[in-house]
Amino acid sequence: MEGEAPAEPKTQLEGEAPPSRNRWRATTVQIYQQGDYRLVLEPALCKGCNLCVHSCPTGILHLNARGKISTTQEAVAEKCIFCRICEMRCPDFAIWVVKPIHSEVHHASAATGSGK
Question: N or C: which end of the chain has fewer CB within 10 A?
Answer without folding.
Answer: N
